[in-house]
Amino acid sequence: MIPSPTAGTGTGTPRGTLVSIEGVNGVGKTYLTHRLLEQMNSRGLPAPRVIEEFSARTGTTDLGRALLTALRAAAGGDYFLRGGHPRSETLLLAIKTHDHHTAEPALRAGHTVIEGRGPHTTAAYQAAILHPDDDTAAEHTATRILAETTRWRPLPDLTVIVTDDLDTALDRAHTRDRRPFSADEQRLLNRAVRLFEHLATTDPDRVRLLDRRVHNPVAAVALLTEWIAHTTPRPPAPPLDAG
Ligand SMILES: Nc1ncnc2c1ncn2[C@@H]1O[C@H](COP(=O)(O)OP(=O)(O)OP(=O)(O)O)[C@@H](O)[C@H]1O
Ligand SMILES: Cc1cn([C@H]2C[C@H](O)[C@@H](COP(=O)(O)O)O2)c(=O)[nH]c1=O
Known about the structure:
Elements lengths: L17 E5 L6 H14 L6 E3 L11 H12 L11 H4 L2 H17 L4 E4 L2 H12 L4 H15 L8 E6 L2 H12 L5 H20 L4 E5 L5 H13 L14
Parallel strand pairs: 1-3, 1-4, 2-3, 4-5
The structure holds adenosine-5'-triphosphate and ligand LXEULUCI.
The site of ligand LXEULUCI has 12 residues, from helix 5.
GO molecular function: ATP binding; dTMP kinase activity
InterPro entries: P-loop_NTPase, Thymidylate_kin-like_dom, Thymidylate_kinase
Organism: Actinokineospora cianjurensis
């Protein structure tokens, strides 16, 4: 496993590190995560656990899927789950809370867990949706959404925001999905990029930018490996029902 200097779990097993990989559609989150897993595998190291990506989830077999399926249906297939009620749709945080809940046993057992799109995606995307024309209000709301999140689940120990030229990222997603992005979607994603950068600037200890214009895939995976290895897991917050 990726070495994890740790906070204790109370059981003698060092706690694992929770890492989120963030960034706009097509930027390469899944690609780089797979390259990281391949590298761990080729070195004979235990692979991090990966929380299933959103687009692969269907059905209602658990609470997280049921919530996502309901949001998708209410949004009529919109890529960003917009059904016209953005404040209610920030319910996406409930899915992220559920994801953390399901990751907790692996973290307690000392595994590194990778969350593809964590709370920072919800903060950036929902803030961009809620304030389409007001950058300052959007930044404020993104910060508030993250703060609200921590009442229900901890933020990842390390958040890596993958960045690239937006057109390059969207071309990749277009080629992959055979679905172009509308002008409205491109505007939303442009704002999401700026909000991701804002969130990175305001929390430099926890959040890192990985710029694909600067780092080729080999260098990007090496950086990811190094950042994960040097992240100290934070002790878990007491559960809400702890009294
Ligand atoms: N360096 C690369 N070389 C070749 N193909 C790449 C590279 N980086 C990304 N891709 C391809 O580009 C497409 C988009 O990348 P990927 O699926 O990893 O993006 P993503 O950030 O996970 O996107 P989304 O959030 O939309 O799921 C994929 O088909 C992926 O295989
Ligand atoms: C968590 C979250 C996701 N979305 C959107 C963004 C993407 O279009 C899809 C997820 O696709 P992926 O291939 O699994 O990355 O869902 C969103 O709009 N808001 C969110 O909080």
